[in-house]
Amino acid sequence: GHPEIFPLLLTAKTQKIFNCRADEDVTEENCFKSIKKEDIIQDLKTRANTSDFHPLKKVILEYPGEELLVVFDPKLQYGQNFYIVASEEAKENLLKLSATAEETEENREETLEGHKAWVSLGSEKEVEEESVKERDTKIKYKISRVRRKFGAPITFTDKNASDDKDSYAECTSYEDNTFSIKMIERDVGVQTVPKVRETSTQTKWTYPKNASTQYYTRQLSNEAKAETLSSETLKEFLTAVHIRMEIALQQNEIMDVFFDDWKALAEDECKPDVYLKAYQSFTDVQYLKNRTISCVRWHPTIYGIIALSAREQPSYEEQVNLSNKLLLHQSVILILSFFDPICLQLVLKAPEDIYCFQFSPSDPNIIAGGCVNGQVVLWDISKHEEKLQSALPVADEINDLSEGEPTVAALVTEVIRGVMPSPMQIQQSSTEPSLVRYCAASSIPYSNKKPATDMQWLPCNSEDDQKGDENYLQLVTCSPDCSILFWDIPSIEHRQKFLSEKIKEKKRSHMPLDTDEDLDLSWKPLIKINLRERDTNTEYGPTRVSLRELQYRYKTSGKAKSLSALRTPIKESPYTEMSASSSKNLEALENISTNFFVGNEDGEVVYSDWKMKIDTHSKKPMHSQKYTLHIETINTLQNSPFFKDIFLSIGGQKFAIWKEGVTNGPILQSSCSEGRYTAGQWSLTRPGVFFIGRDNGNIDIWDLLKKTHEPSHFQNISKSMITFISPSSASAEQHFLAVSDDLGVLHILEICQTLCHPLSNE
């Protein structure tokens, strides 16, 4: 758009000749330079074609004026670092514009000089000091709520805070013991970093040359070979080295020359063998598919027999709402055997999914289970005891099978230890397991309103056993509905006799048989205890209960009631309240501890007494002791098999060890772990060892004689959450650990000898 402007590239040499060096003689503000036409023509004659003005030679010669205007163009607006104005009119216009801009700038500077300049007196430092800057890291809080209060109605009332001392809480400062504990061990990492220096190198390039090399073996003639073999030098050499050669060959045969003795010695001293060896693994496509194993128990007397129960995997919404849905699956307890892992031994049918169950310590043929709907169910497997005792290994049992056509087993087993059986062996050894129906079930209206989360058998009274009294207390269950129920065990023989008579009556009357409906559902608890404090209206939803000793003798008046009389409806309250008039029928045995531990849904550990005690000074009832340590539901509360007054509690990200009589808190508590603890059990052979399952599928082995701040060893068992742990001592040299996961797989692990044999004075 400017035909009078011609871009021009001036090199540094040309700029120096004509005194128009960039950023020195000419700048972006003062960009004009007038050069005489005669000087440019002289440069064209002197340097000819090498002159920077040679491309514009014609324009320069035809220019009418005596001086040409050369303008510095640092932004390369016209494509080069300079350009020439080839007309007098354009030259005058550019110079006028430049003069006008300079006058405007001078006027502006004069105006600014008329105002007083700002002088700093230090106020900006005060502003900077008063400004708020985040320096400390923010603390994150996790706020949880009791699951049963989700969706509950809320009522607000006006109240004066000064009238009630519990209406407001004062948060006082306290000393955190976490920062005062002296650390015994500390992991410190040191990394050396070399200094970095940037250098460059260039290899001198040379012309390549093609070259090749060929070698040939040297061949000796027959005369030379004979002369070498018969030489005295060779004979002397062989005589000197043949003894050392024989010794070296013998050593290579006797020992491994590549074995590192020092490394092996260090491993023996510093790293003892602590491991859990995989023994067997079980799962079942019919009963355990898409289900989680809720409880695992070993048979108390028969070696190699293990029982497990499974329940549905509820979502978070289903856990909160606790909605009772009709699920298309069978609720059972599976009984397995090590010696026949391909086949199920027994399948115990249940009315609902089993949350927990226990073998009776006095009669292992009696199994009690707690359902997710709160019912308590009993099974009698005495008829199948011989089958469990006669379980043989798979190889021995295949030879004794009949030649009839077998059915396809639903059990899919992964036998890690030993040789996997062939598909033909699996088909031959597959038999239908025996289905065992429950012989007694509690009445639903009088059972727990929520799942029976834990149960314990009480020690039997030998005096009552001799008398034949059937109504002594034997079973305790707890549930998050704030209740603990005490049950008697009804006579199994009378119930079986009653059922057989009922079946005969229906056969005579040609009525359809339904064993489930004929079962006695009139079984009710003898005692119900509500864990509520009347003064503060505080509720405790127990999920685990641990009794040190508890035993009552229930005195009956007259003859024992018949089973038909038990089935008749009772108008009176089915419960025997501890504080009501029914206490006349209860006789507490002497020298029996009535203290107990309870773990609830809120992660609290409650220590209380069955008997109501009165403070001698205030004449008021003494309340329970409550410890808030865990932030989630208590999933394990177990007393030590070696000490009656030592208890282990696990819940959320912590575990704690308690001692009865110590009221200021646990004697040992862990720090918060990265994941959640989901299960745990004491060791049956070592008092200072216990096992904890995590949500990432790991098993933490804690040995308190070695470390108390971290597990001494951990091992991954599954890719899903660990749901239950159950140890067993098969013999003095063989101990097992049953571990179940959330995918419905039962892992049988063999415990190493280091974790089985206790140390001196442990």
Automatic annotation (TrEMBL):
Domain of life: Eukaryota
Any one biological process term the GO annotation gives: inner dynein arm assembly
Keywords, in A-Z order: Cytoplasm, Repeat, WD repeat
Gene Ontology CC entries for this record: inner dynein arm
Keyword Repeat in record: yes
Chief subcellular location: cytoplasm
Pfam families assigned to the protein according to its UniProt record, in alphabetical order: WD40
Descriptive protein name: WDR63 protein
Organism of this sequence: Falcunculus frontatus
Classification lineage: Eukaryota, Metazoa, Chordata, Craniata, Vertebrata
